[in-house]
Amino acid sequence: PAEAWGDIHSTVQGVHIKGKVETVAGNYLAYYDNIHAHIREGKPLAVTAAQGLDVIRVILTAQESHRLGQ
């Protein structure tokens, strides 16, 4: 549904872009439910700490790329 779409507001190569973008439906609470089940019941993690660190590295690299304009 359109009400679940995200907003984009950016400038790319001097062109301003503003509008809506389709997003992927998700169940973000399931992530935290899984952490709870891991701590309380020993169930395996769906996302490991190493995988989470990889995501943070990608975000930091993207921020650095933006800062450097590369």
Structure report:
This protein is of the alpha+beta class. Helix content is 49%, strand content 20%. It has a two-stranded antiparallel sheet. β1 (6-12) and β2 (15-21) form a beta hairpin. It is flat, with a radius of gyration of 17 Å. The model has no long low-confidence stretch (mean pLDDT 91).
What order do the SSEs take from the amino end to the carboxyl end, as H and E? EEHH
Q: Any idea what the radius of gyration is?
A: 17 Å
Q: Which regions have little confidence, pLDDT < 50, spanning 5+ residues?
A: none
| Count of individual helical segments | 2
Which outline best applies?
flat
Helix content: 40-55%
State the total count of DSSP E strands: 2
Quick summary:
The protein is α+β, with helices and mostly antiparallel strands and 70 residues long. Helices cover 49% and strands 20% of the residues. Strand 1 and strand 2 (15-21) form a beta hairpin.
SSE arrangement:
Layout: E1 6-12, E2 15-21, H1 28-41, H2 49-68
Antiparallel strand pairs: 1-2
Properties at a glance:
alpha+beta, 2 helices
